[in-house]
């Protein structure tokens, strides 16, 4: 199968901007009213933070006039309304800030909730190939680290970006209004800030992106080691595992260190450039006042102390907010890297399904014709609509599966199956045997349409399986895998997983059929015993019995048993075999087995070698040929 892979960082600045734009677009779509209200509140708060410079200029102007005239009452009458208006503006600003912070908290958590749901819902529709080619730990990283970067972006970085950016624009406009000369001095300082930000910020961004990728790789490795800890200890692989982990951890350390080293150096440098600029503005402003240089401004006011003093405060405010903007760049870069990974997951093409033939319950009328019914009758049929004439035909579901000259490859140019032909008649048991990698499990994966064939045909009751809707196709197939997967819940819940509308009695009957009822009733709480961690509180054999019961309760016409008894001891196998025989009665059954004693009673045994069927026939016939199967059965050589 294809090797595991991980999603990388954004490929370009254009992709990064598209990801950021997509986040904002989705946020606006999720909250069409809250989003613009929040933006308005942020802008109002930013404007309220910028306007005090204008009030200071007016108050100093009034004080200058009072100093010249000596009329304090007149100055008081002019100053107090301005102070009152400023206080009122600050009160409204506090209300606005409180409101938008609450709205942001609500939208952030709501957005993340919707994103997680969207990601998970989309993941359910991905083909099996996706999970075969991506590390599960890396996939988990999408729901933890990558989602957390979006939380930081939405709750802090974007609001700060909008607010600080707005303040910078408002303050710059006021600066231009009052004095072009002093504004030019500020712009020279800003150019210095931008140069430093470009050098340090670019390096920081590069390593923050690498950090996200390194986190995904390390989590993928940790998840693999957790799942395989017994194997690690059995083969005394602890030291090598530590060495591999240390390498990944060291890479993560280096990426994190370099990213934060750049980021931590940027803030004090920008801050001190702002302090230097403050001193320069004071010096230049004083020089312009002393030299009586004519003012160039939109306000047409003369350059005096009432302009220079508030200009100093505006310079501090201007550079301070620029510093805030640069501080958010790292969080934005990390969030965009995480968003890019998430969007690549969300944009994965879902499993294609062009099927239109569905499985329905039917009854038979007096004339022997099949009639569709909404009630569960255990009489199934394939509903086949014909677009040519608008008619609908019903084909009884019998369980006949045929493979005709099938070729398949997981990767192009590396064929796994060659010219495979199989006829599985209703009620017959077909067994596949052969060495590991011969293609046995691949055949069953093709019947389920987990993968699609490269050439040939697979028909189910005479219908090309490409025409059958995948969900209905798989609903008609019961499967017991070699690797048992149990879910957190009770034993009853895990059995009922095979058919969610099954009653408790039906689940118990299925467990009895599989030979699982005996050990289940001896559990502390019987069928209500909780299973966690993939059923680690049960033995491997017990877990497999539950999986067999889960397939039994589904009551499908076709069963696929992939090494279904591989983890069961000989005594338990005898118990299960009786149940399996009852379960397989009247059904088409595909069996994959290394233990050849389990396939002796198969109607047809097919021996595979490197993707080709080299022998087929009953047990007695193949023994009589004294070929490969005879050698396998008598132990002349091992399967593997």
Per-chain topology:
Blueprint: H1 13-30, H2 34-50, H3 52-69, H4 72-124, H5 128-132, H6 136-178, H7 180-227, H8 229-234, H9 238-290, H10 305-346, E1 358-364, E2 370-373, E3 380-385, E4 392-396, E5 401-411, E6 414-424, E7 429-434, H11 440-447, E8 455-460, E9 463-464, H12 470-475, E10 477-480, E11 489-490, H13 491-496, H14 504-514, H15 517-521, E12 530-531, H16 540-554, E13 558-562, H17 570-584, E14 588-592, E15 604-609, E16 612-617, H18 619-625, H19 628-634
Parallel strand pairs: 7-14, 7-15, 10-13, 13-14
Antiparallel strand pairs: 1-2, 1-3, 3-4, 5-6, 5-8, 8-9, 11-12, 15-16
Helix pairs in contact: 1-10, 2-4, 2-6, 3-4, 3-10, 4-6, 6-7, 6-10, 7-9, 7-10, 9-10, 14-16, 16-17, 18-19
Q: Which tags fit this structure?
A:
elongated, Rossmann fold, 6-stranded mixed β-sheet, disordered C terminus, alpha/beta, 14% strand, ABC transporter transmembrane region fold, 19 helices, 640 residues, 3 domains
3D architecture notes:
The protein is α/β, with parallel strands linked by helices and 640 residues long. The protein folds into three domains: 13-346, ABC transporter transmembrane region fold (Up-down Bundle); 358-396; 401-634, Rossmann fold. The chain is 60% helix and 14% strand. It starts with 12 loop residues before the first helix and ends in a 6-residue tail after the last helix.
